[in-house]
## 1
Amino acid sequence: MTGQLEQWFHFGPWVFDISAATALVAAAPRDTHDLDVTAWATAYGLTHLDDEKPTTASLIGPTPDGLDRLYAMSTDLTNLVLLGMVHIGDQQPAAMLIDGVHRLYHAWRTGVPQLPAHLLTSEETLLIQHGKLLGPGHTSIIRRYP
């Protein structure tokens, strides 16, 4: 990935290598899915981020001071968001937005009903998921794709 910065998504104890995920999608083209903006923005707590007197806290999405709204409103909504399939305990894998929270906020604020999304398989998600916080500049345990 010459010339591009590595990109990581941190969620709880996990780190997802978005650069590697993007390479996986490029190496194995797939159909796009329509992401329901209102449903996902609500689930991620984005619909309450701008409340003057918040009465709820999101367990999944960003905190009110953790989302750069100016940047979000400048994002390109034609760029696909990325969903990974995560395993939590013995449950069936569930979809999680691992790239595109700023685009989701932008779409919700401007009334866009759907965003195009790519969905990684469970196996692909495990390839780009780290079990501890490594972050940029640290040794990665995943294989890099050209």
## 2
Amino acid sequence: MTEENEKVGNVSQSRYEQIVAELRGVVEQQTQGQFTIGDRALEIEPIRPRGGVATDHAWSVDLSLTQLAEDIGLAVKTVKTARWTASRWPADKRRKEASFSVHKVLASIDNETERYAAIETPPAGKTRWTMDDARRRTGVQVETPVSPQEKVTAIHALAQDDKVAAAVTGDLLRRPQVAAKVAQTDKVRVVEEFTRDEAVAASAATSLLRRPDIAFKAMSDDTARFQVNHAQAERSRQAREHFEDTSPVAPAVRQIDRAVEFLDLVTACHSFVAAAGRTVPGLRDRQLSDDERVIVHENIALMRATLDWIETAVDTGKVDMDDELARLLRGQ
């Protein structure tokens, strides 16, 4: 087939290339427009340093940016995002061949030198960044998964609903090779049969998890670890609700809780810093695999979003999380 006869969709290859060139110009204009919004929002409300870290006085910033958003007919979240992204990319570090969305994703790279170098160096074999490439670089879930780990992550995200998960599991187990891997030995099947009863399963799981080697292997499974953490949180929530509903001293305890919550928050921060201080030095001279780096970057993105949430709660008393953080906490 000659080049003239090759088609992309309903247009010839040559026409497609014309459309791409035209739309790249449109994207460049949109990128410039978004950065202009961000620059002007920064002019109105600069991001102020506090303790060596760039941050905001949210109580006044929200008022100014909300007024600006209303006056120009945009959502305040759009203005805030443009402002933050512009703050991460000085004018001389922006690249017109990269979309504003790519700049926004790569803006989450904390180290300035690393961030500026990243925008200059698209992945090997490519001349420009795509959104999925930027997401991979920062450890965020991609829209079009390629690697096995990316596909597994996407499946988990789509199967959050129990009905969807059950349907997918049933379909997969109809494939002989999959079913054979799931039930690798007769011993596994026998154990599963004996533990169909929830009381028996709970007792067996409790006994097995007392064996350190089994507990370690079980907690290496992301799904198992998530379920254990979820169960612990749910048990604490139920115990708390029962206490508040039935205890005559609950009102007095609520007053104490304000101080306790402060101490818990400070303790959590110290615990995180201490854990990082113990763990990170162990990475010296160790080269993580691509899948391992993706997992670590995903967790870093979650921690970064959570820290922003904590800072907003501390500064404003508002504990409502935005859609992006809620999505991350759900593992999507």
## 3
Amino acid sequence: MSGAGSVSDAVRLLAHTRFTVLTGAGISTDSGIPDYRGPDSPPRNPMTYQQFVGDEAFRRHYWARNHIGWRHLRATHPNAGHRALAGLERRGLLTGVITQNVDLLHEQAGSRNVIDLHGHYNEVICLRCGTVITRQQMHERLEHANPDFAVEVGDIEIAPDADAVLADTAGFVVPPCEVCGGVLKPNIVYFGENVPKERVAAAYAMVDDGAALLVAGSSLAVMSGLRFVRHARKEGKPVVIVNRGATRGDDLADLLVDDGTSEFLAELAASLPDL
């Protein structure tokens, strides 16, 4: 295991293989989406599933903040790291991308085989009847229910899950499901909520299909991502981690690169030979 790796070291481990990529919030910071646990990130306390389900005031507070944060997230664009991975997939060098992000930037960059492990920000689901609507439809309903709620995106702090930091949300109105009157929730996996089993199984299969695993921009602080690193290690597959700062999986890696993902992935894509 090395803590001072470089792109050339990664090329030596990944050349002439098809490998799998696991990405976290760090890959999207250059697109203007802050991460949770980077070296320069402020402390954050994201809402848990239990808080959202069990407390109407928490739900109201979340939806008011999400109403603003969603506008920012949908205006972001893929960066060089996302584009590099899409290019590697087109060349047949990737089995696919497993992402812990909900921002859809991998898909926007052109990646086709993507597992959105935690879902994505652009859908809303009813917790009672399971009806799914688009986030645009929810936006229109929230606008109609809160015509006087106006906060400019540039005036607030945005978090990675389309959340925004607002102090006062007491008067915000959250409409219920139009089908059954149930509670509406963004169709993403919250802290304290389990990733659907079939999605986890698909991600394991993607790791199994590759000869190595590259982790890009994740601290691996939560088990939803760390388990795939442990699985790759158990199966004897090389593990490369590129991230700013230490990760929970450092002791499992064959190579550690303490760097940002955009430049690293662009250089890696340019340096890897075709199969």
